[in-house]
Amino acid sequence: MTTTLPPAPPAPPESAQTSTSGRSGPPPAVPAWRRRLWPYLLSVPALVITVGILYPFALSAYYTVLNYSARTQNNVEFVGLRNFARVLTDPQFWGSVRTTLVYAVSATLIETVLGVGIALLLYRASFVGRLFERVLILPLMIAPAIAGVLWGLMFNPSFGVLNYVLGLGSEFVWLGRDTALASVILVDVWIFTPFVAILVLAGVRSLPREPFEASAVDGASWFYMFRRLMLPMMWPYILVAVIFRFMDCLKVFDHIYVLTAGGPGDTTRTLQVGAYEDSITNLNFSGGATYMFLLWVIVFITARYLVGVLGKAQRRAAGAED
Question: Which of 63, 156, 257, 271 could tie 295 with a disulfide, CB 3.0–4.6 Å?
Fold first, then answer.
């Protein structure tokens, strides 16, 4: 018996296929001019940011060779390197350099030691550790100027909470001549130690587990593993934190000016505070620009050196360098 199959239905027209499948064939070709233009359009935001950074820098560098101030704004003259000679022979400038370096080195050292210690304490996961890890970030969420206001209230010798809790009475002055620099360093440590701890903790958690497990099997102590294994491998992360904090401490201004305005006298007068006093208080714009240019030179040289040290540490941690 022969079975006759029904004839196949006719193929739907092309318009019906398009409406049924929802496709319209291959995508249209992008014109060549659009493909050539697209990379330039993507680079526009970076170009705007670069111009926004370089234009104020170039303008400030130009001011350093002028006598531009509120008194001479109608008679601005080219003075060459006279501003640099004035600043570099000013004892107050070198006092600001010393204060800036003492502040940067002390704050960075304390924050690094405390940050690494906190990171090691939080390394072992626990409920208390996870809770403290969330709370640790709170100081970073407060603007340094606001933190300066809060600590200024706590430092007050008459009604400050610190003197009351520590039993110091109203005689101890936190922001006096002998203690002002240490007090502003304390505020910086409170704000930015969590930054170092979080950065180092992320580095510790990314370390491989195999070397530690093998050392534990061989009976190595925790201190030996920390000194011989963990510390060399986490050294690049510590250096990254040191670079960030040291560069930021060299440019510190906000909470120092809120707490002491550079005083008493010039006890806490950093380079940023000196530039502010020249530019804003004394309206000597060329003098303030000279301060900032010299600060930029210090930061640039220090950053290049520290980045070189970081590169060597990374190669040593990777085993590419002894």
Answer: 271
